[in-house]
Every structure is written in C-alpha cells, then in structure tokens.
Amino acid sequence: MNPGRMMDYPLTLTHLLERARRYFPRTEIVSRYPDGWLHRQTWADTYARAGRLAHALRRLGVGPGDRVATLAWNHHRHLEAYFGIPMMGAVLHTLNLRLHANELTYIARHAEDSIVLCDRSLLPQLEAFVGNVPSVRHIVVMADDGPTPAGKLDYEALLAAESPDYSWPTLDERSACAICYTSGTTGNPKGVIYTHRSNVLHALFTSLPDAVPVSQRDTLLPVVPMFHANAWGYPHMAANAGARLVFPGPKLDPESLLDLMERERVTRSAGVPTVWLGVLALLDANPKKWDLSSVREMIVGGAAAPPALIEGLGRHGLTVTQAWGMTETNPLGTIARPKADMDGSSDAERLAVRATQGFAVPFVETRHTGEDGDVLPWDGERMGELEVRGPFVASSYVGDEGKDRWTADGWFRTGDVVTIDAGGYVRICDRSKDVIKSGGEWISSVALENALMGHASVLEAAVFAGRHPKWDERPIAAVVLRKGAAATEADLAKHLEGKFAKFWMPDAYVFVEQIPRTSTGKFLKSKLRELYAGMLTK
Length: 538
Prior knowledge:
This protein is an alpha/beta fold.
C-alpha cells in the first residue's frame, strides 16, 4: 500500500500577510503618532504598502540576504517593514533604539546593514553612530513628527512612486528573515537569526488556546518594542489570526497606555513587569478612571513578575499571565497557565502557579542541569541552569559566535537558574550572573525581590550581591518606595522574617529613587553592584 506524499509547502511570512489580506482585508491597524494622532489602515493597506516598500528597496539596490535595519517605535510603517523586507528575500534587522551609540555602531557594523529605515524623531540617535558604519548606503526617514530633512530619503515619497503589486519570490523556509541582537550585558551583543520557518512555527504554536490565544476577534496592543525579539511574535500572530493591532508609538507612560487601551477596546497586551508596575500604581491611585472591561489578558515577560503585581492588577479586574522567553527562543518558551486539574484549587494555590514562569509551549523542551552538568530531577527544589530546545530555538549566533551556549546534544544554555516541579512548571530563581553565592549556598535574588514587592510601601525592589569578607557574597536590597509611603530597614526585614532561611535575609538595604534598567526594561543589577557591592566591606 502506497501511503502517499504530503505537499512540500514552504513556511514563510509571505503566507501570513497574504492570509491577512485575503481573509481580513478590512481589519484595522491603529498607530499612535508622537502628537497623539491615531493613524488607521487595514491589513489590505499593509499588504499593498509592503509591496511598495519592496519595490522601493529593490530600486535602492537591496537584494536577497541584504540586511535592512529599522530604528523605530511600534507603528504601521514598522509593521510594513516586518513583512515587506523578509518577503522580498532580504533580512530585517531591528535596532534597539535604547542602546548607546557605541553599541549600535558595533551591532550595525557586525550585521553589515545596507539601509536604515529611521523614525524622524530618532534621527539624533541614528546620526550619533551611522557615520561609523561604512556598509550603510541609504537612510530612509519615516516622518513621524514632521517633514523629512534635506539630504534624506522620504519613506512616503518612495512608496508613492511604486506599484503595490510585487511578485513575491518563492523563498526557502530556512532562509534568514530577521536578526535581533541580544542586550550584551556580559560582552558584545550577539546576533540571533530568525528564519521564515522559525517565525511561522512560533506564530502557530504560541497562538494556541493554552499559550497566547489570539483570534480574529482580538485587538492586540504590543507594548513590548518591535526591536525586542520580534515584539514577542505579536505582529506575526496577528497576521496569522487576522487580529486587529494597536501600536502605541513612543508614548509608553502608564496614563497614555491606559487611555489607548480604553479608547481602542484592547483585548490583549504584552510588556515587561516595569511597565505593568507603573500601570498598577496609576490604577491604584485612580481606580475608576478607565473602563478596561474589554481587556482579557495582559502578558508579562522579560523578567520575573512579583505575585503582588499579579494580585494587584487582579484587584482591577485584569488578568496577568506570566511567560518566559529570550531573544534566542524567538522568544516564547513557557507560559504560566494553571492546568485543568487545578480548576477546584484555591486562589492561593492558583496564584502560586501563576507566579511561576509556567510550562513549555508545544514543541519546546525544558530541562535544568547542576554545576556538574548532570540533568536534575523535576522536584521543585533543586536549582540549576535552564536549558531548552525546539524548532524555533536558535542553534547558533551570527558569525558562529558563542558556541559554548549550546550543549553537545543540542540544548541551549539560557543562563537562567531555575527549579522545575513535577508538573513541569519552571520557576526562575535568578540569572546565573546574578545568583548570590553566600558561603557555598545559593540565594535567589528574584524570590527576595518578589517578597519585598509584596510590602505595601514598596514599588520596586532589586536584590544583588555585595562583597563580604567572610561569606564571599551577601544580599543587598535596593528599594524604591511608593510615592508618599514610608518604610525602614527594620520594617522590611520584619516583612521578610519567616519567609526565608535566616542566611537569605539581606545584610543591607539602600533606598533609591529609581532602579537602573537595561535597554529592554529589566533591572540592571551590574550597575547596582558597581555602585553598592563594596558597602559591606567598609
């Protein structure tokens, strides 16, 4: 009996945008400009403009495999680049607009960018480094806050001169479609290559009901920047489902986000904990100002979310779901959804699960290993480095750098120190570079931070290692108090008592106005160590 053969159909981004144009042509893409004006177009418009962009780039000499960079906020033109560049066979390179000029110089040179699409409002950042990148031939300005300066190419003028009909090539699904560089907190940033296949599979698997369920009836607000790990896949998921997209542009303060969520009836959003902490503080101060009844879920990722954040937004009727991922995982790897066998569990039991990073999404595998490299049991107790593998997990960096991040049997070493329980729920204890090693024992800074942020007076807390003459390292807590609130070291120590072993308790507290952050909004503990690590030895 001949079992037959299945059609060899390439998994490319072209199919996602063509699907959105064909089946959901009138669904809106909403973009807020810097002055607050809301621009509206449709998936059909986006498809046509992506074709015009491809023609324009081809006329400028862009060919297969060429890198075209973006330096832009979240908006419709960036979305057009998300599809038009890779669909023509070139490679989209999203530049992180919050990096220093020296870092951007290194990244753009390393990627060999040929053209940069830049928001007009971000031209000062671009001009601070682009002169040191000899591969850049053209700068195309997306005029978001005024006219295009003389001597630069205007995005809209380029598109207006071209046809919307582009003969999209048949692409190899394993060819590169995008590059995103890591934040480079420990050495030079490294480039992660996303293929058409990896992005399509990520969009499919992460849209499933128990992952990030996205449907044609959703309105998605990606607060996470489009330069950060494909905006966590939201543009691709939206195109696949035919969902409505709302882009916030550069105004990411809590009030602007809440206004936009209410006005556009957003159903799902995603961002890092620091964004939602600000939103929570504003909602607590103005509990009845916004109608957020449309919001079904807010995804939090990029760093561990304290249970106090999940509970706090829950008081306002908002469901927060924690997820974990990295640039190298495209990015979603796990998501914290209580399983069906917990349907009768108490709120406290369900919160304990929701405060983990969750279990793996389909086709992602997880394990953790000890310092000797042995795979550890899933007992919820043993801490080890998280390792992952799957069809949308990177297998190398640009230039074949960082080979030591992959094991001999093909697992990616994440650098996250975790426990995994019997149900497969991953709980991040620390980054390997941030875990506190005191007298030979490991102390989880994340667990201490979460507990501190459960204090009524604490807005944010970051725990880091201070040097100690006897124990090598001891925990120090940097604390930001809520506006108008007060707390002493003794108050915070009492709050932690009984929750942890005595040797876990911080040796010192520093009260600061703001905790330093990375370019993607995570706490920058290396800066805290630089400032305060020696205070215990004085």
